[in-house]
Design a protein that fits this description.
This protein is of the alpha/beta class. It has helices at residues 3-11, 26-37, 74-77, 113-127, 177-180, 251-264, 313-333, 338-366, 371-380, 383-392, 399-408, 413-433, 443-461; strands spanning 12-15, 19-22, 42-45, 61-63, 81-83, 88-93, 98-103, 108-111, 130-132, 135-142, 148-155, 158-163, 166-169, 197-206, 216-221, 227-233, 238-246, 272-282, 291-292, 295-297. A 7-stranded mixed β-sheet has the order 7-6-15-16-17-14-18, sandwiched between helices. Strands 9-3-2-13-20-19 form a 6-stranded mixed β-sheet. Helix 2 runs parallel beside helix 4 (113-127) and helix 12 packs antiparallel against helix 13 (443-461). The longest helix has 29 residues, at 338-366.
């Protein structure tokens, strides 16, 4: 071996775990913990340092705090729950001089996201997962038949190769792994565009005096229709203040909306900023299929976020669990084909994916409605019905409620009638998603039926096609 060959060999390392998980967020940690508890080797590749791992931009609100997969016990993450007294949403609608209080179903908490991030990493490590920090994935390796066989990465200037039976992509929104996989031999969803995502920016601020709304998640529209502001109380004096906006908008102009609103709110006078961070997140339906031979995408990397609220922690945890259990079945049978891993898709759609797809219809409607009309409509709707629409993907609107809403929303009748029509389209879509196919060969026919329904959604809402 030449000196150059010896040097190259010395600079390269090869690891061969059963499963490689890319990304140490919620989905990645729960996936790795689930695999490890079944006795298989799971390695998590995380680009951040060990000290910074778990530090991501997040609204810190956690819906479904009562239900998490058992692979990381809830007791492990509970120390990060800083406010469990929140029980409703508070929608501030300046255009209508209205504050709308909306109940939020299920257990709710506001968390310290960095502490939560540390705790789930600790929990996955306790389960037996191995973490490789400072490791940036550069490429994905594939066999001649298209099966993913591992990843190539760099750590502190040195190349590393990870060979694995299954790769779980938990690398977040617009995952770089998906840019490098040839999906031509599978049904993996490649109908993904940057316009399906939003940017989010948040500051954690500390105030001197307790806020009056420490039991609420506060939402407020930005001055432009492309986003919304939030104020989520970690405690009564530590607030997560942020905004989300579509990728198609100018980010700094919208960040100015947040800064201006902070300056104009008396409760934030003299506030101290403790942390600043930004990120991207999906505001779209879940991937039609997040499965390819030897490969699955989970969490933000597969569109597993409520597109109307941006909430995704609990869904990501369960997506990680479901993907890991499919991976374990593949390891036990020696078959990691798309067909074997397909059950992961079905479980996601059954648990939350169908609901999120129906909610995306309301996102589509919002792109075609004037913001003042939309705010007028929200102000006219009963709070409990808005809660159903925001979290279940559907709501029952009878003739009496329709008449009352029309009376209250005089001047916005065209918008509210459009909402009722859109609601019917969302119901149709939800019903179709409940018939999600049981094997990949049936997906194309199901997609055609879904796309036919989406044409009716665009026709009803007047929105431009999203997909």
């Amino acid at each position: 071996m030449s000196t150059q060959e010896q040097s190259t060999a010395a600079a390269s390392e090869t690891h061969s775990p059963d499963v490689v998980v890319v990304g140490a967020g919620t989905a990645g940690c729960y996936a790795a913990a689930t695999v490890a508890r079944e006795g298989y080797d799971a390695v998590v590749l995380e680009r951040k340092t060990e000290d910074e791992a778990g530090h991501i931009a997040c609204g810190d609100a956690l819906k479904g705090a009562d239900a998490f997969p058992e692979s990381i016990p809830k007791s492990q993450i509970e120390p990060a729950f800083t406010n469990t007294g929140v029980d409703h949403g508070r929608f501030e609608i300046p255009q209508e001089d209205t504050v709308l209080e909306i109940p939020i179903p299920g257990e709710l908490a506001v968390i310290d996201r960095w502490e939560y991030g540390r705790l789930i990493i600790e929990g996955a490590a306790d389960a037996g997962a191995d973490f490789h920090y400072d490791t940036v994935v550069k490429n994905v390796t594939q066999a001649d038949d298209g099966r993913v066989t591992g990843v190539e990465a760099m750590r502190k200037g040195e190349s590393r190769t990870y060979e694995a039976d299954v790769v779980i992509d938990a690398a977040g929104s617009l995952s770089v792994l998906q840019d490098n996989v040839d999906f031509s031999t599978s049904t993996f969803d490649t109908n993904v565009n940057y316009s399906h995502f939003c940017s989010a920016y948040r500051e954690v601020v500390r105030v001197d005096d307790p806020v009056e709304w420490d039991d609420a998640l506060v939402f407020k529209p930005t001055e432009r229709a492309a986003g919304y502001l939030w104020y989520f109380p970690r405690t009564d004096t530590e607030i997560n203040a942020g905004l989300g906006f579509q990728m198609t908008e100018e980010p700094m102009k919208l960040v100015d909306d947040l800064k201006r609103d902070l300056e104009n709110r008396p409760e934030f006078r003299g506030a101290e900023v403790e942390d600043k961070l930004g990120a991207a997140l999906p505001t779209r339906r879940p991937y039609d299929s997040a499965v390819h031979p030897g490969y699955m995408a989970v969490g933000d990397a597969a569109g597993h976020v409520n597109p109307t609220t941006g909430g995704g922690i609990a869904g990501a945890a369960y997506a990680g669990k479901y993907a890991a259990e499919a991976a374990v079945e593949g390891l036990e049978t020696g078959d990691v084909s798309e067909k074997t891993l397909w059950e992961y898709n079905e479980r996601v759609m059954d648990h939350f994916g169908a609901r999120y797809a129906a909610l995306d219809v309301y996102n589509i409607l919002s792109t075609a409605v004037d913001v003042d009309d939309l705010m007028g409509l929200l102000a006219a709707m009963p709070g409990e019905k808005l809660a159903e629409a925001l979290y279940s993907g559907s709501t029952s609107i009878g003739p009496k409620l329709a008449a009352e809403s029309l009376y209250e929303s005089y001047g916005h009748w065209g918008t509210i009638i459009n909402l009722f029509r859109t609601k019917r389209r969302a119901d149709d879509l939800l019903e179709l998603y409940e018939e999600y196919p049981h094997h990949p060969a049936a997906l194309e026919h199901w997609q055609q039926r879904r796309d036919d329904l989406m044409e009716k959604v665009y026709e009803t809402t007047g929105a431009d096609p999203k997909y």
